[in-house]
Design a protein that fits this description.
478 residues, mainly beta, Immunoglobulin-like, 4 domains, four-stranded mixed beta sheet, 39 strands, 45% strand, rod-shaped, binds calcium ion
């Protein structure tokens, strides 16, 4: 084909392939030339032959300057000086340089004067689909577990170096795995969920293979694949679970700031987050504020303290209800906080005898009313015996009387060393002390019954010839 470089007083149009050649009197706009990228040649390859109408009048020659010739990238085009033939010298890459602008000039061979106006020309490089689509940016997405169907997970971003607006860059998105849980929009690349059963506590992330294909997914399209990671973020769908169904603990009256109970719980949600950290509430039974409960910062246990002393005389047991919550509210309609009962038994501080047992020596046949000694108890808190009463519990021979107010012991009957109630010289009496709040304790009084003739109150345990154990006065071996 030829392009005539003409001057005309009339606007003309010549159909030329797919383009139009327009000319005006002073300036004219030639069509763009087209070359196809990646053409295998052979080279040089003739593109056009340019002919100026002035060649009819003059002997002309042509020159060319601009991109692809003497401007970057040089060496792509050559114009035959005498014939006006424009050659492509080598394969071109549209993605590297999509169009070349240059100027053709016509000269008189004799005068070296220009015989015509400059002809600006543009060569467009036609696209070939030689670039597969590419993934752009992160394929890491996060979506809350148990989100509703259709929740947007994220958008797969892509690029394609080929020509915009053509099928060469029209990408179709497909998921190759994970289709039971996710779907991808074929045109936009937006991934959404297809289920509301995604459970972080079961599996905290899913890997899905994404395929992208240009030519809108046609078989001749170019393909790329990559793996998207979909991380499930935690919601608080698990309440803390108690390890036991109830507790029974004891607290002594008048105690305070004492740890009564450690209550462990388990929580399946994400550890060390507000969804996991427990928050305990005494939901019932603490109307008087005797208790407080805090969360152990490391173990997440509930620590139940008595914070205000309890009075046994007012209450001897408290029924608490302990509820385990999280710092964060629960998500999901089916779950609710759990509670367990904790029974706190208040124990009284009873009186204590001066010793669990006490021993006195008493001669047999000691007159009634003779004082043997005293055996007293005190309140361990006040160390006082005030208000404590004493009673006999056991006294098989009724040999002893106990003063109810003082704990004084007196002889009340004939004490007989030979009585079958005496064993190895010992006779036992059990005494009970009772305080004002009816708390009791018992103690044992051991009487060592002595022979009245014995000069000393010390007896030795010896054996007879019949091998019986007997108490004897030292020196008297009869
Ligand atoms: Ca291309
Ligand atoms: Ca492409
Ligand atoms: Ca939780
Ligand atoms: Ca969870």
């Amino acid at each position: 084909m030829k392009v005539h470089l003409v001057r005309s007083t009339m606007l003309k149009k010549h159909q030329r392939g797919q383009g139009f050649l327009s000319r005006s009197k002073r300036r004219w706009a030639p069509p763009n030339f087209n070359v196809v990228e990646n053409d295998e040649g052979p080279y040089p390859k003739l593109i056009e032959k340019l002919v100026s109408d002035t060649s009819a009048t003059y002997n002309v020659y042509y020159t060319i300057e601009g991109e692809g010739v003497d401007k970057y990238p040089t060496g792509v085009f050559r114009l035959e000086r005498n014939t006006g033939e424009l050659f492509l010298l080598k394969s071109v890459d549209r993605e590297a340089f999509p169009e070349y602008k240059f100027v053709v000039r016509v000269w008189d061979q004799i005068t070296n004067r220009e015989t015509d106006e400059n002809l600006p020309l543009k060569v467009l490089v036609d696209d070939v689909n030689d670039n597969p689509p590419e993934f752009v940016g992160s394929l890491q997405f996060t979506v809350p577990e148990h989100c509703s169907v259709g929740t947007v997970v994220g958008k797969v971003n892509t690029t394609d170096k080929d020509q915009n607006g053509t099928d060469h860059v029209k990408i179709k998105y497909t998921l190759l795995t994970g289709t039971a849980m996710f779907t991808i929009h074929p045109q936009t690349g937006v991934i959404t969920t297809t289920t509301n059963t995604l459970d972080r506590e079961l599996q905290d992330k899913h890997l899905v293979i994404v395929k992208i294909q240009d030519m809108n997914g046609a078989a001749n399209g170019l393909v790329a694949t990559s793996t998207a990671t979909i991380v499930l973020s935690d919601i608080n769908d698990n309440p803390p679970i108690f390890m036991k169904t109830s507790y029974d603990v004891a607290v002594q009256e008048n105690e305070s700031e004492k740890l009564l109970l450690r209550i462990p719980v388990q929580d399946k949600d994400l550890i060390n987050t507000p969804n996991w950290i427990s928050k305990f509430v005494i939901s019932q039974g603490n109307e008087n504020g005797n208790f407080r409960i805090v969360t152990h910062p490391y173990t997440n246990e509930g620590l139940l303290y008595v914070s205000k002393p309890l009075d046994y005389e007012k209450t001897n047991s408290v029924q608490l209800q302990i509820t385990a919550q999280n710092q964060a509210p629960l998500s999901g309609s089916s779950a609710s906080w759990n509670s367990i009962p904790v029974k706190v038994n208040v124990t009284n501080e009873g009186p204590e005898f001066s010793a669990p047992s006490i021993r006195f020596n008493v001669k047999e046949n000691t007159p009634n009313g003779t004082v043997i000694g005293t055996y007293t108890a005190t309140d361990p808190e006040t160390k006082s015996s005030k208000g404590i009463k004493y009673y006999k519990v056991t006294d098989p021979g009724s040999w002893i009387s106990v003063d109810r107010d003082t704990g004084e012991l007196r002889v009340a009957n004939t004490i007989d060393r030979e009585s079958p109630l005496v064993h190895d010289g010992f006779y036992n009496v059990t005494v009970r002390a009772v305080d004002a709040s009816s708390m009791t304790t018992t103690g044992t009084v051991i009487l060592l019954v002595e022979n009245p003739m014995s000069p000393v109150s010390i007896l030795l345990k010896t054996k007879t010839e019949q091998n019986e154990e007997v108490w004897r006065v030292p020196g008297n071996m009869s």
